[in-house]
Amino acid sequence: MEKEVLITKKMSTGEVTKKYPATKEVFAKYFGKGCFDCPSFGTEDINLACMMHNTDVDKFVQELNEAAYKEINKT
């Protein structure tokens, strides 16, 4: 059975980190810890953020979803 997609590249960075705080590690891994201080963080969509940081959006979204699944499946 395939997992439901929780996060898409059209979602905003703020929407994702608010709903799934564990994804902040993925953002920091790819964009650096300073990304959370950027004025556009929270409003831009994931696709734009990845374009700005020359990051493979599909791989990035996959890792965000993995982090979100680990977070919601913690017991």
Automatic annotation (TrEMBL):
Residues annotated as domain DUF1858 = 7-61
Q: Which Pfam families match?
A: DUF1858 (PF08984)
* InterPro entries xref list: CHP03980_redox-disulphide, DUF1858, ScdA-like_N_sf
Q: Which Gene3D superfamilies match?
A: SP0561-like (1.10.3910.10)
Q: What is this protein called?
A: DUF1858 domain-containing protein
Q: What is the lineage of its organism?
A: Bacteria, Pseudomonadati, Planctomycetota, Candidatus Brocadiia, Candidatus Brocadiales
